[in-house]
Amino acid sequence: MVTLSALAQGLPLTAHEALSGVFGSISLASWIFLLVPQLIENYKQSSADGISLAFLIVWFIGDITNLAGALWAGLVPTVIALAIYFCFADLILITQCLYYNFTNSRKARRKSTRSTLTDNEQAPLLGRRDSSIGLPGSHTRRRSSEASRRHRESVNRRDSLASIVEEESGHKEWVKNTVSIIGVCIIGTVGWTIAYKTGVWVPTPTDDGSAGTDMALGAQILGYMSAVFYLGARVPQIIKNQRDRSCEGLSLLFFMLSLLGNATYGAGILLHSVEKEYFLTNLPWLIGSLGTMVEDATIFIQFRIFSDGERSAVVV
């Protein structure tokens, strides 16, 4: 970020520093757009059943501790602004999920009540109607068997068509997500280029004593706490996916952006400097970013396994 000492020294732009700036800018773009795909997915489904509320709440706590640590450490304004943005975005997503969970559960209760009343009203009629089954000379069983066979054939044709449509839609979804990731990378790269050309971003000296080596102990503790919350947040989601044997209702792009943001964030830090003091200062944020990449990869595997399982179940 901009420092007076860097501007005064007119530091040359090295390849490592340029890559560090580009990766940092891509990470920033990823975080800005991160929650949008899941908000859209919930809106399209009119449901938030696919996402674990515990995942969002623990992640929100991690963002709060991250913001507190950034304020305590006196980090650059962009980092603090992004932390504040994340807290508000988390609240929006949590509120949306609570709204859909409440409205859908109320609709389900109303439907269950109406279904019970209807069953009670029709029970005597059904009893009288069923009494005619099995009378001598009736052809009910034969007609029922033929109707059942025609129904199975119709269902098999629909299932085959559904599997083809599902496979095509899945392919289109992957293409759309890939294009979105490329677009975020382009936005981040262009953003860094403009910032560098206009002097908003300049190389930061790696041997500058103000690189954060004197960060307050409390800020470091909050940083480690946020890393623990970030690492623990995805565990409820992974458990939910495994229990339901499905990732339906989750936005794949949401986790792809998370993986991109964490990877570029960690790469941006490591490309800037690997000196011991600098590394230890940023270790909490590195753990939080790079550690969650393993969990994101686990969710990607679940997407793949469960989507294949659902497709094979349709064919059968």
UniProtKB/TrEMBL annotation:
It is found in: Membrane. Its main location: membrane. It is a multi-pass membrane protein. Gene3D superfamilies: 1.20.1280.290. One of its GO terms (molecular function) is basic amino acid transmembrane transporter activity. Pfam families: PQ-loop. GO terms for cellular component: lytic vacuole membrane. The chain crosses the membrane at residues 20-40, 52-73, 79-102, 178-195, 215-232, 252-271. Residues 127-155 are annotated as: Disordered. Keywords: Membrane, Transmembrane, Transmembrane helix. Belongs to the laat-1 family. This is Vacuolar membrane PQ loop repeat protein. It comes from Zopfia rhizophila CBS 207.26.
